[in-house]
Design brief:
The complex is a heterodimer of chains A (about 160) and B (about 200). By secondary structure, chain A is mainly alpha-helical. Chain A has 8 helices and no strands. The longest helix of chain A is centred in the middle third of the chain and has 28 residues, at about 60-90. By secondary structure, chain B is α+β, with helices and mostly antiparallel strands. Chain B has 2 helices and 10 strands; from the N terminus they run ααββββββββββ. The N and C termini of chain B lie far apart (about 115 Å). Classes of the chains: A mainly alpha (about 160), B alpha+beta (about 200). The interface between A and B is medium-sized, with 34 and 28 residues.
């Protein structure tokens, strides 16, 4: 256990040093703010350390951490939306300013099932090659193509849902 | 109506192209935060382990004390009781004119001067040279003298009651087996008409 802890600690610190831009970019695509992205990434790293017992060796630490970054980033967005709702006193989603703008895209992606949400953020919006993205997500490239196709289909359905509201 | 594929690709491309200016490189702060979290957890674990160790020590201590109370003391009482019961039985067998002493588990008979019924029942404990606990149980009257002449134990035991509450016992014995002289004058300030254990310290080798 102590050996695992030491290895995990080394791995986390190495990721913090070498892959920080990658995690920041994922967070940024979600929270749209540099400061919030840094908060989400920091919170994700600490959460990863605390929950290291749930880490499975077969998956890479980087991919596992990327998913935690995504979850933490969405937590930041949800918190922000709750605060905005309190201030405005209205449900923001009821009155989108521009249905087809980037803000709506963010909300549709946020509502996607986790599997497709991670696919969009890491494989579509990220700067990784297909092979790198597949490794991060722990699947083959063919599976990744199928997931991307399905994710885009779900995004289009999401836009349609908001249009009907 | 769904968004067109072209429009979606355009939006995704715009999203991908979004750029933000970061104030500074947060890597050192992030590493500091991670190290801090790790240190905090290690400290907490360290204190948890210390508390656990202290609790175990406390439990062991309590168990040791309980064991000492429950096991050792009753055993001493049983020794006294057993010694006195044996003397009572021997008294019935040999009669009151014989001096009766149990030296450990061996009955030693001697000459007794008094003809009164021996009412004082005493047990003396001491450690011989090897550290072995030796026990001497004896019956005597208020004014009594028991002369022993045995290969194991020889000498005299004198009983002298000065008042109703004070009994003086003088021991002048030689334990041949352990090559020790036992000389002591013991003042018993309580009524001794019952079994009593006395620890002897004055051993002359």
């Amino acid at each position: 256990m102590i050996f695992f802890d030491r290895n995990f600690e080394t791995e986390l610190l190495m990721l913090a040093e070498h892959k920080l831009p990658y995690f920041r970019k994922i967070a940024l695509r979600i929270v749209n703010s540099a400061a919030d992205a840094d908060d989400a990434v920091q919170s994700a790293f600490i959460k990863a350390w605390k929950n290291r017992s749930s880490f499975r060796q077969e998956a890479g630490v980087s991919g596992w951490l990327a998913k935690i970054v995504i979850n933490e980033s969405y937590e930041v967005v949800r918190k922000r939306l709750r605060e905005e709702k309190k201030i405005a006193g209205v449900e923001l989603l009821e009155e989108p300013q521009n249905r087809y703008d980037l803000e709506l895209l963010d909300r549709v992606v946020m509502d996607l099932p986790e599997l497709y949400r991670d696919t969009v953020l890491i494989a579509v919006l990220g700067d990784l090659t297909t092979a790198e993205a597949a490794a991060e997500l722990g699947c083959s490239e063919n599976t990744l193509y199928q997931r991307i196709h399905k994710a885009k289909d779900l995004i289009r359905q999401g836009f349609a849902k908001y249009e009907n509201q | 109506m769904k968004i067109s594929e072209q429009k979606l690709e355009q939006l995704l491309s715009d999203k991908r192209a979004q750029s933000f200016e970061f104030d500074q490189n947060p890597a050192p702060d992030l590493q500091l935060a991670i190290t801090g979290a790790i240190q905090r957890e290690r400290r907490a674990r360290h204190w948890r382990m210390l508390s656990l160790a202290a609790s175990i020590m406390l439990l062991l201590g309590a168990w040791g004390w309980w064991y000492a109370q429950s096991e050792i003391r009753p055993a001493a009482k049983e020794t006294v009781a057993a010694g006195c019961d044996r003397l009572e039985e021997a008294l019935k067998l040999f009669g009151k004119n014989v001096g009766l002493v149990f030296f450990d588990d061996d009955l030693i008979t001697g000459e007794r001067l008094s003809e009164e019924r021996p009412v004082n029942r005493l047990t003396f404990d001491w450690h011989d040279r090897t550290g072995k606990l030796r026990t001497l149980s004896v019956l005597g009257a208020d004014s009594d003298s028991i002369m022993l002449d045995n290969p194991e134990l020889s000498g005299v035991i004198l009983f002298s009651r000065s008042d109703d509450n004070t009994l003086v016992v003088e021991l002048d014995l030689v334990s041949t087996g352990s090559n020790q002289k036992i000389r002591d004058i013991i003042v018993l300030p309580k009524k001794t008409h019952s079994a009593q254990t006395v620890k002897i310290d004055n051993i002359i080798s």
